Amino acid sequence: MTEVDLSAPARALGGSPHLSGRLVRPAGDGPWPGVLMLHETFGIDEVMLRQVERMAQAGYLALMPDLYSDGGARRCTLATLRAMGSGKGRAYADIEASRRWLLDHPDCTGRIGVIGFCMGGGFALMVADSGFDAAAVNYGMLPKDLDRALTDACPVVGSYGGSDHALRGATGKLEAALERAGVVHDLKEYPGAGHAFLNDAAVGPGCCTR
């Protein structure tokens, strides 16, 4: 795993002046398809880093930008969550800067997907119309204007927990909106699973653990 400097493309787009990320290359010789990974509300921790490692082991050039690069999780969480809901803000510039950086990487084939967890899942859904080849949304919050967000979206894979009370009904709402938009999709709701069920360890307060 390598820490990479994403500040140049971020500054060019009005993003975080000190944007950084974690990059993991698969074993063997590239190039490989890329995956931009968007972290959950608590930021890049050991659980998220293991998610990046797993994606690389599956054969993808995996990059996770730190959306809290300028200020840290304590200072940036609320503003970043607000940006996710509004559809505009520095976080979107950071995501686009990271996508372009990965696209230009010599080890990338030029095919890039986006995958997000929790807060990152919400962002993955919001940027599904922004040049990605596929989006994987894991227990992500749905945007207020769901139909508008999904206009021209790439294919979407979604995973939600049947016991995730904060997102009750999200699977059905998202499925209906994707159908209306004519977007290729594959959604699953896992009975008995709570929020953050893809994490291999509990993090943060009880609201975001299994």
What features would you describe in this structure?
With 210 residues, the chain is an alpha/beta fold. It has a domain of 146 residues: Alpha/Beta hydrolase fold, catalytic domain (Rossmann fold, 3-Layer(aba) Sandwich). The protein is 34% helix and 23% strand. The chain is built from 7 helices and 8 strands. It has an 8-stranded mixed β-sheet with strand order 1-2-4-3-5-6-7-8, sandwiched between helices. The two termini are 27 Å apart. The C terminus is likely disordered.
What is the compact description of this entry?
With about 210 residues, the protein is an alpha/beta fold.
Structural class estimated from helices and strands: alpha/beta
- The largest sheet has its strands arranged as 1-2-4-3-5-6-7-8
Strand content: 15-25%
Q: Any idea what the CATH superfamily of the domain at 2-147 is called?
A: Alpha/Beta hydrolase fold, catalytic domain
The top level CATH class name of the domain at 2-147:
Alpha Beta
Radius of gyration: 16 Å
Order of helices and strands: EHEEHEHHEHEHEHE
Q: Count the strands?
A: 8
Please tally the helical runs, counting DSSP H or I stretches of 4 or more residues.
7
Under the CATH scheme, which architecture of the domain at 2-147 would be assigned?
3-Layer(aba) Sandwich
> Averaging pLDDT over every residue, what do you get?
90
The low-confidence runs, each spanning 5 or more residues with pLDDT under 50, are 206-210
